[in-house]
Structures are given as C-alpha cells and as structure tokens.
Amino acid sequence: MKSVKILLSFIIPFHNESILAALSQRNLCSESLGMNAAKKISQNRRSGALGLLDTVFTDRRAAASFVRFSGVGVFATLVHLLALNLLVLGAGLHPTLANMGAFLSAFSISYVGHYYFSFRSRQNHVAAAPKFFIAALIGLTLNTLTFAVMVNLLQLHYMISFTAVILIAPPVMFLISRKFVFSPADDAASGEPPIEL
After folding, report:
1. What is the pTM of this model?
2. Are residues 144 and 100 in contact, defined by beta-carbon separation less than 8 angstroms?
3. Of residues 95, 71, 117, the one with CA closest to residue 161
4. Could you tell me which residues come within 8 angstroms of residue 177 by beta carbon, excluding any fewer than 6 positions away?
5. Sign (positive/negative) of CA torsion 129, 131, 132, 137?
C-alpha cells in the first residue's frame, strides 16, 4: 500500500491524504490492484489534446508521423513564404490579403504530402480531401486572425506575424489532421492495404 501511495504522489499533483483515503476506500489503491490503479489514473489524466501529444511522443508510429508531418510542413511553409513575399513585395498586395493567397498556394502541397507521406493514408480521396479542406480552412482562419491582429491591430511587421503563425498553426494542424482528417480508424475502415514508401 505504501508503494502505491508513493507512486500516486507522483501521478496526482498536489495530492493530500484525503484523496488517497478516498482512493483506498474505493479499492483503487488496494494491493490486489497494484499498478492497475496507477494506470487508470494515468490514463484518465491523458485525455484530449494533451493525451494526443503524450501519444505522439511515446508511440513510435505517431512520432514518425509527426517527423514526416514536420518535413512536409517545412516544405509547404517555404512555398507559403515565397508566395507571401512575391505577393507583398512583387504584386504590392496588403500583407493580410497576400497571406491568404500564400496560404492557399501551399494547400495542395500540404494535402498530397500529408496524404501520401505524413500519414500514409489509405482513405479514398473523396473522403479525405473534404476533411483536409475543412482542416485547412480552420488553419487559414487561425492564420488570418493571427496576421490581422498582429499586422493591423498591433502594427507589427508582417514577418513577425509570419513567425508567430508558423509556431502556432503546425501543432494545431497536426492534432486536427491526426484525429480528424487522416484518423487511423478511418484508414482501417477503408479496407485498402497500407501505403509503403
């Protein structure tokens, strides 16, 4: 029982004796359950986006997918940056409007790269592309709002805004892509063999 209490003291931050007593009364800390109680508490703590991030850094496939996602993202970001500068400096567009065009220019690169390389999806394009488009619209909204606030309201240089966008948007988009667009459950349901590269 003492070893479980010590383990729980690391799992439950700011615990006190009343929490441990309540767990003991419910037989969650009994010697017969041992590590199962700690696993249950740990699993309950790992829900939502934080749980997904925990999975990304402990599951080898998810971690590899994140690395591939980052590579595709860097390439799409470079295309975005090139298009942004061409539209602002070359065409004389306002940075917020130019950013929308630049974001859309990177869309096809992102879709193809993430479909075939990052997530190695087996879904039909008819199913995956609309979900990716919705995710891209969420990304575009986040991207444009960040730009509008930083450039228009805060009067910051558009490259500072671009830096903020590339730090904020990719983690959000990875979570949306992994859970919604290229979900492993949707791939399994497709019945197609896995894509090998």
Report:
1. 0.58
2. yes
3. 95
4. 69, 114, 118, 119, 132, 135
5. positive
Q: Quote the pLDDT of residue 175.
A: 87
Distance of alpha carbon 168 from its chain centroid, rounded? 10
**Statement to judge: residues 142 and 169 lie in one domain:** yes
Please spell the DSSP secondary structure of 61-84, one letter per residue: HHHHHHHHHHHHHHHHHHHHHHHH
The answer on 75 and 11 residing in a single domain is: no
In tens, the pLDDT along 1-53 reads: 444 344 334 333 434 444 444 444 544 444 444 445 445 544 554 555 556 55
Nearest to 106 by CA among 162, 183, 53: 162
Q: How many domains does the chain have?
A: 2
Instruction: Please report where in the chains the tokens 């029982």 appear, as a residue.
Output: 1
Say what the alpha-carbon torsion angle 98, 131, 146, 56 is, to the nearest 10 degrees: -130
Q: Which domain holds residue 8?
A: 2-45
150 and 113 fall within a common domain: yes
> How many angstroms separate the CA atoms of 147 and 139, rounded?
12
User: DSSP character for 30?
Assistant: -
> What span, in angstroms and rounded, lies between the C-alpha atoms of 83 and 106?
9
Looking up tokens 């993430």, which residue turns up? 114
79-119 tens-digit pLDDT: 999 999 999 999 999 998 998 889 888 888 999 999 999 99
Q: In angstroms, how far is CA 90 from the centroid of its own chain?
A: 33
